[in-house]
């Protein structure tokens, strides 16, 4: 056999449910990589003969390999800080009240508009580095802090550039309908028309987005406006997703599911009808425990119903300056288990196999099996549950991205 590299003395959480329903575990396994893909994977005892003098062999010393982690929902390009609002909230003002008073998302919009593309790139690069150190190999980044043609394009161009210059793959999402910009304060519908008629065509023209998202909520865009934007995106051939049911039940998830959305995200207020709609369409349910924790929410997403209807559950950081200033995908594993009572296996599925589904890339990443991209991490842990159990001492020892060792 002629391979580019071989990994041995490893246990492997393949996340392949044809092996087992939890981690798809192979103890004392081996992985062979060729041309950036997994060429062979299985128990070490079955590893075909190869020339060890001609093939780099890496030893895991009994650690665990998992797929590279995927953070399927972030807003990691933004300028400024909202620590002052954090302080206000601790003095009794609510997230909704801050937003209504012109703070919140608009506060970050002002800072992001004032920043140059170069400044945003540097801020984004540092955040991407932080995720990458914890084993993240694919990240989704949304726009939504520009809220005008020029600045939405600026954000998306920076996201695309980050993807080109960083080993982490970047999927981009156009979230022009994140909040109502001050210029359209008294005419929400006119802004929605602007998103559909001016911004979206420009985004498509430069191929800046892989998907389109809307914040469907009583403090943002209503159901009809959401449908108008998602329809335009679909007609243009883009994938769709939705911030839905975060603060109230608006029925956004059912709408998005019927339209074939990849995922609906937040979903604390999702009800059984909504869960059924997700199950029927194969739409993923993205859980964002960072925002739940940081906003001190108490309404739990309907985890038991999602399990019952076998809706793929995704876990993501939602990293953003307002509701989840927590730039750690590993932390989400812990919060997903402690706050939402996910099992550690469900949590790991949420940042691997199911996260890949939510980004429409499950034919390439998220599961370790022959033919998939060789994106994986070696962790210094005794069992995969340790990734969710403990936080703070980063157990990531190595990261391989499309067959290249990128972190030692
Ligand atoms: O996903 N829910 C809407 N948007 C973000 C919050 C953005 C902000 O507050 O800056 C979220 O939680
Ligand atoms: Fe979000």
Question: How would you sum up this structure in a few lines?
Answer:
The protein has 408 residues and is an alpha/beta fold. The chain has helices spanning 83-90, 95-100, 105-114, 117-133, 149-165, 188-205, 223-235, 252-258, 272-281, 289-294, 303-308, 329-340, 344-350, 353-358, 386-389, and strands at residues 5-13, 25-34, 37-43, 57-67, 69-71, 136-142, 169-177, 211-214, 239-244, 263-266, 284-287, 313-315, 376-379, 396-401, 404-407.
What do you see in this structure?
The strands form two sheets. Strands 5-6-7-8-9-10-11-12 form an eight-stranded parallel sheet. Strands 3-2-1-4-13-14-15 form a seven-stranded mixed sheet, with no helix packed on it. The model has no long low-confidence stretch (mean pLDDT 97). The protein is of the alpha/beta class and 408 residues long. It folds into two domains: 104 residues, Urease, subunit C, domain 1 (Roll), CATH 2.30.40.10; 290 residues, Alpha-Beta Barrel (TIM Barrel), CATH 3.20.20. The structure holds N-(iminomethyl)-L-glutamic acid and fe (iii) ion (FE).
């Amino acid at each position: 056999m002629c391979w580019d590299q071989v990994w041995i003395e490893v246990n492997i959480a393949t996340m392949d449910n044809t092996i087992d329903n939890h981690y798809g575990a192979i103890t004392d396994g081996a992985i062979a990589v060729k041309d950036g893909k997994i060429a062979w994977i299985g128990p070490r005892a079955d590893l075909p003969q190869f020339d060890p003098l001609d093939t780099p062999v890496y030893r895991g010393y009994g650690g665990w390999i998992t797929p590279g982690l995927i953070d399927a929902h972030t807003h990691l390009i933004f300028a400024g800080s909202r620590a002052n609002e954090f302080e206000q909230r601790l003095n009794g003002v609510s997230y909704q009240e801050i937003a209504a008073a012109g703070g919140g998302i608009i506060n970050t919009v002002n800072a992001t508009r004032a920043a140059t593309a170069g400044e945003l790139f540097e801020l984004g690069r540092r955040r991407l580095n932080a995720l990458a150190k914890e084993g993240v190999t694919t990240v989704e980044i949304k726009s939504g802090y520009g809220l005008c043609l020029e600045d939405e394009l600026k954000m998306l161009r920076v996201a695309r550039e980050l993807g080109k210059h960083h080993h982490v793959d970047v999927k981009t999402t156009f979230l022009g309908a994140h909040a109502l910009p001050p210029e359209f304060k008294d005419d929400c519908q006119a802004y929605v028309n602007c998103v559909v008629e001016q911004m979206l065509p420009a985004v498509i023209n430069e191929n800046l987005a892989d998907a389109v998202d809307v914040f469907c909520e009583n403090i943002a865009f209503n159901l009809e406006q959401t449908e108008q934007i998602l329809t335009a995106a679909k007609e243009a051939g883009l994938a769709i997703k939705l911030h839905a049911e975060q603060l109230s039940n608006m029925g956004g998830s059912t709408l998005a599911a019927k339209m074939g959305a990849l995922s609906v995200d937040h979903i604390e207020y999702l009800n059984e009808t909504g869960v059924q709609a997700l199950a029927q369409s194969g739409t993923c349910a993205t859980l964002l425990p960072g925002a739940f924790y940081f906003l001190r929410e108490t309404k739990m997403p309907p985890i038991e119903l999602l399990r019952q209807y076998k809706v793929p559950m995704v876990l993501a950081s939602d990293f953003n300056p307002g509701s989840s200033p927590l730039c750690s995908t590993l932390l989400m594993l812990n919060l997903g288990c402690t706050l939402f009572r996910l099992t550690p296996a469900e949590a790991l599925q949420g940042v691997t196999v199911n996260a890949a589904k939510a980004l429409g890339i499950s034919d390439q990443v998220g599961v370790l099996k022959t033919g998939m991209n060789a994106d994986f991490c070696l962790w210094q842990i005794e069992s995969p549950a340790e990734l969710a159990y403990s936080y703070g001492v980063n157990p990531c020892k190595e990261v391989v991205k499309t067959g290249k060792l990128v972190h030692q």
